Amino acid sequence: MSAWRTAEVLTAEDVLARSVADADKAMREAAKLRYPQREPSADDVRRVMQYAKSNAATPELQALQRRIAGGYLSWRQVLMGEAADDRGVKAALEADREALAALCRGEEPRVEPPKPKPRDDDEPMTFTEDAW
C-alpha cells in the first residue's frame, strides 16, 4: 500500500511532521510568556488604579477603570492576563502598555508634559517699548 509513497513523499512527510512539532513547541513557549511570572502585588494594583483614575491615563484605560469599579472585572484579572480576550482590556493595554509595565515594576510612568495649545490670534507674546 505504500508503493505510492516515494522517497520524496516520505521526506516531505518528515519535514512536515518536524515543522508541526516545532510550531507546537513554539506555541507552548509563547503561552508561558502570555501570563506574568508573578501575581501582582497590592502595591502594583494600587499604583495602576491611581494611574487609571488620573488625567495622565488614556480614555481607554479610564473606561476600563470605570468597568472595574462597576464590578465587571478586577485589576488582578487584567494584570494576570485572564481578561486578555476582552476588547476593552485589549484597547486599554495597547494604549497604556508602557505606563502599566512601569507601574508593575514599581516605577513611576513617564508622563509627557501637555503640548502647548496654538494661539488663534496674531498678538505678540512679548511687548517692547516701541510696540506701543
Explain what you see.
The protein starts with 6 loop residues before the first helix and ends in a 28-residue tail after the last helix. The longest helix is centred in the first third of the chain and has 28 residues, at 7-34. It has helices at 7-34, 42-53, 59-69, 75-80, 87-95, 97-104. The protein is an all-alpha fold and 132 residues long. Helix 3 (59-69) crosses helix 5 (87-95). The protein is elongated and about 100 Å long. The mean pLDDT is 80.
Strand and helix layout:
Elements: H1 7-34, H2 42-53, H3 59-69, H4 75-80, H5 87-95, H6 97-104
Helix pairs in contact: 3-5
Q: Using the alpha-carbon principal axes, give the shape.
A: elongated
- DSSP helical segment count: 6
The largest β sheet comes out as:
none
Radius of gyration: 27 Å
TL;DR?
The chain has 132 residues and is an all-alpha fold. The chain has helices spanning 7-34, 42-53, 59-69, 75-80, 87-95, 97-104.
Keywords for this entry:
about 130 residues; mainly alpha; 6 helices; about 55% helix; elongated
